[in-house]
Write a structure and sequence with these properties.
Helicase, Ruva Protein, domain 3; about 55% helix
Length: about 160
């Protein structure tokens, strides 16, 4: 019984928890605006951590961005206006999911293109190979004589 309790305690302590970095002093009083702010914060990249959203990051720059998002929402900006403002200020890199636009067409188009090119290469390679019937090729009489001189007479 003691081991089971100790094991359960260990599992609880080692289990990953969702630790959001939003501090209570950052939260807006209006729950609808706060929900919008949290949604936007989860779409924006922390410029310090780079693979975390500003909602999850504890970096000071992420805090500044969270406050900026909330400030823009309080001023009446739409979600798209807030995103456009941040992209204009920090570039497309601030978005965790880049937009589908002409300048990042390579980013979106290269993976499907690479898959298609690989599939075509495999198909062409398979077509070039001769279809074998599973049997070894037979030797001509000259080749049989050369092989016999190299290997020697068969032993019984």
């Amino acid at each position: 019984m003691y081991r089971c309790a100790l094991f359960a305690l260990l599992l609880v302590l080692l289990a990953p928890t969702a630790a959001l970095a939003v501090n209570p002093d950052e939260m807006l009083k209006d729950p609808k605006l706060e929900a919008r702010a949290r949604t936007l914060s989860s779409e924006l990249r922390c410029m310090v951590c780079q693979n975390q959203s500003i909602d999850d990051s504890e970096a000071p720059l992420a805090r500044d961005l969270r406050l900026l998002v909330r400030e823009r929402l309080e001023k009446g900006d739409s979600d798209q206006q807030v995103l456009n403002f941040l992209v204009a200020r920090y570039g497309e890199f601030v978005l965790l999911k880049p937009r589908f636009e002409l300048q990042n067409l390579l980013l979106w188009g290269l993976p499907p293109f690479a898959l298609m090119a690989g599939a075509i290469a495999l198909y062409l390679n398979a077509r070039r190979r001769p279809a074998g019937d599973g049997q070894a090729p037979t030797l001509s009489p000259d080749e049989q004589k050369k092989l016999a001189t190299l290997v020697g007479p068969p032993t019984a």
